[in-house]
Amino acid sequence: MADNLTPPPSGNPLRLGVNIDHVATIRNARGGDHPDPMRAAAVVQAAGGDGITIHLREDRRHIRDTDLNATMAAISLPVNLEMAATGEMLAIALRHRPHAACIVPERRAERTTEGGLDAAGQDNHLAPIITRLNEAGIRVSLFIEPDPRQIEAAIRLKAPVVEFHTGRYAHLWLDGDKAGLEAELKRIGDAAALAAKNGIEPHAGHGLTFDNVQPIAAIAQLAELNIGHYLVGEAIFIGLENAIRKMRLLMDAAR
Ligand code: PXP
To answer: Which of 19, 174, 210, 216 to mutate to test the pocket of ligand 1 (most atoms within 8 A of CB)?
Structure first.
C-alpha cells in the first residue's frame, strides 16, 4: 500500500484523483445497479488516473457502504475516502483503512460540499479523529479554504495533507471576474507555498473543468487534484476514459 513517501503510481508529478460519486448518483436515480461505480473505477485505472476518490455521505445519497466495500476489495489504486468528522465515519475508515481520508464539512441540505472545513474553529473536535486516523496509517487530508488560519490549524492538528477548496475559484471563472480570479489564484498559490513550507502536502479540488484546470495545475507545490462532477458529465459526450486522459494531458501541459 502507498504511503507518504511512495511516488505517485503513474510517476506523474501532479496526481489526478478521480471522484466517482456521481456515477453512483446516476445509478441511484433509477434504484438499480447501473451504471456501476466499480466499472468507472476500473476505467479510471485504465485511463491513468492516480487514485479513486469517494465520498460516503451521512445520507448515502450517492456512494453507499457496499460501494466502499467493493472499491476496497477490487481496486488497486489508492482510495481517498472523503468523510465527515463523525464517530460513524471514523469507525468506517478504521475498518476499511483506505490510503487516505479527506475530512470534509457536511451539511445535509447542501447540494455539494459548499466551502471548506473550519479546522481552525473545531480543533477540539477534530484532534482525536485525526490522531486515530494518523495512528492507523491513514493519510489524513483536511478540505479547507486556502486561508493561512486554516493551514495553521492543519499544522497544529498534525494533518499531513490539506486539500484546498477551489469552488470560489470555479465560480469566479464562470462569472468572468478577471480581477477576482487573479486574487483567488494568488490566494491558492500562497496557501500551497505556506503548506509546503510547513511540511504539509497541498492538494486542490472542486469545480475543476477542462477550461479552468490549468492555472490551478500550474501551481508548482500542488501534488494532487481531485476532480469528479465535470469528468462524469463529460463522459456522457466523450466517454470516461477520454475525459480522464484529456484532463491528464491538460494538467501535465500546465506544469
Ligand atoms: N475534493 C473534495 C474534498 C470534494 O468534496 C469534492 C466534491 O465531492 C471534490 C474534490 C470534487 O469536486 P467536483 O465534483 O466538483 O470535481
So the answer is: 19
Domain hosting 156: range is: 15-254
Residues 68-97 pLDDT 10s:
999 999 999 999 999 999 999 999 999 999
Instruction: Enter the pTM of the model.
Output: 0.93
Report whether pLDDT(1) > 50: no
**Count of beta carbons in the 10 Å neighbourhood of residue 127:** 13
The reply to whether ligand 1 has any atom less than 6 angstroms from the CB of 105 is no
Domains of the chain: total? 1
CATH number of the CATH domain containing 32: 3.20.20.70
CB atoms inside a 10 Å sphere around CB 153? 22
Please indicate whether residue 116, judged by its CB atom, sits closer than 6 Å to ligand 1: no
The 10s digit of each residue's pLDDT in 134-143 is: 999 999 999 9
Give 26 Cα–ligand 1 centroid separation in angstroms: 17
Task: Specify the length of the chain in residues.
Answer: 255
Give the whole-angstrom CA distance, residue 123 versus residue 105. 14
What is the whole-number distance in angstroms between the Cα of residue 205 and the centre of ligand 1?
A: 6
Alpha-carbon dihedral 85, 167, 165, 151, rounded to 10 degrees:
-110
Amino acid at 42: A
Q: Would the CB of 243 count as within 6 Å of ligand 1?
A: no
